[in-house]
Amino acid sequence: MLLLDxxxxxxxxxxxxxxxILGGMKLSEIQCPGSMWGQYTQLYDIATGTSVxxxxxxxxxxxxxxxxxxxxxxxxxxxxxxxxxxxxxxxRTMEHxxxxxxxxxxxxxxxxxxxxxHSYFGLASxxxxxxxxxxxxxxxxxxxxxxxxxxDQKIFYALPFDTETRHHFDEEARALFPxxxxxxxxxxxxxxxxxxxxxxxxxxxxxxxxxxxxxxxxDTDRNWGSRAVHDxxxxxxxxxxxxxxxxxxxxxxxxxxxIQERLASRGAVEFTARDGSIGAMSGRKELRAFYGPxxxxxxxxxxxxxxxxxxxxxxxxxxxxx
Length: 322
Fold this sequence. Notes:
The chain is of the alpha+beta class. It has helices spanning about 35-50, 55-65, 85-95, 120-125, 130-135, 170-175, 200-205, 220-225, 235-250; strands at about 15-20, 25-30, 70-75, 100, 115, 140-145, 180, 190, 195, 210-215, 230, 255-260, 265-270, 280-290, 295-305, 315-320. It folds into three domains: about 30-150; about 155-260, no CATH class; about 265-320. Strand 13 (about 265-270) and strand 14 (about 280-290) form a beta hairpin. The longest helix is centred in the last third of the chain and has 14 residues, at about 235-250.
């Protein structure tokens, strides 16, 4: 068995990540590396008409090169949301001296020393994962998404607020996130300090259900692509009953769910459609910010007439200016 006990903490920390930002600039989620890096780069190139890759590509290359060895990258795209756009991002970063196995000439598989993946399971099922892990422990290889399953779950968003773990976090850290709590069989702790049963919370009036419910475990069939994300305030009684049944069935199997404070914001936006026409819409608004070791690299605003705001075909993407 390979153990990571001797690996310094900083090497077990995500290198590149994307945050989902709600109203009040609260971080609802942080994903490593997250999707939409390719869409962001494409949108920038379309909007500016430039042949020079955006700063996010240049700084990604700079930060990877700064790891201390000439990087040979293996980017696992099987779990990315849109592999085609990530390939675009890869090609743009190659303009800044990055080399990729499978993309760059004269690069051998055995030379890989930096592995990027969009999923822990995708990382762990890679053909040479054990070999890569040995190289990582020996300091000869780095992972973007660390080989630690917690980064592929949502349960850790509750840690700054839970009574068992909140003492590890200060108020500044808590202020970054919407209030988040784990649903336990004995109930859920609300921001007021009151503990309510799942049945009581789900049967309460809509005004008392101002939370977003999220599956918080590792089942990729549920935790990927907003599949198990539900707005409790807008859920009907039959929907709430079905959700409660799922949650209660998951308890004995170690699959947990969380609630997050509902902080939906709205905004109006004008856009250029695919056919070149100009349109306008008003809908829910969220931000997606992209980070690397050197800091913030760029951000997108997304508007959508739906409860879930993500990269669906009916979403409007906008570049955020510094």
